[in-house]
Amino acid sequence: MSSDAAPDIAEEFTAPKQGRKGDGGTYLVVADDSEEFATALRYACFAAKSHRGRLGILHIIEDQDFQHWGTVEGRIKKELREKAEQYLWTIAKTANDLNGTIPSLYVAEGEPGEALTKTIDADNHIVQLILGGKSGSAPGPLVSFCIGKGLERMKVPVVVVPSHIKEFS
């Protein structure tokens, strides 16, 4: 094969997202009440620590149907946001116990796949998305989105951690 036939990889290569100078970027995990979240959180803490990065924890508040409730909508959204923030601080304490750092916390509203991609697009420090996979069953809706129709929209690598891996379960 001649050298002129080889593609110029340097021209096609897009530099990966960079974290802040001196660190390995943000490893994002999506917090929810699923069994597999605990495994994903432990792995994300490990990955962030071993790459000198930081942990990011996202909680998504799914759209509610409040269209006809007028001012009640604002109060309910505020309440949901406060609950999400309290939940994130609880998870942040666990993460701090696991890797000794204070994570970045994110709250997003909307359809989960869309909210996730918007969060990743908005933060250039995010270098990897870590999700938990449940062994022996179909993947959850967010994992299905990220490895299916949403994959082309992902700007960072997606890691799905199987729940049966003993080191992280």
From TrEMBL:
Residues of the UspA domain = 28-162
Q: Where is this region: Disordered?
A: 1-21
Give the range the annotation lists for the signal sequence.
none
- Name the source's superkingdom: Bacteria
**Gene3D superfamilies per UniProt:** HUPs
InterPro entries (UniProt xref): Rossmann-like_a/b/a_fold, UspA
Q: What name does this protein carry?
A: Universal stress protein
Q: Supply the source organism for this entry.
A: Micavibrio aeruginosavorus
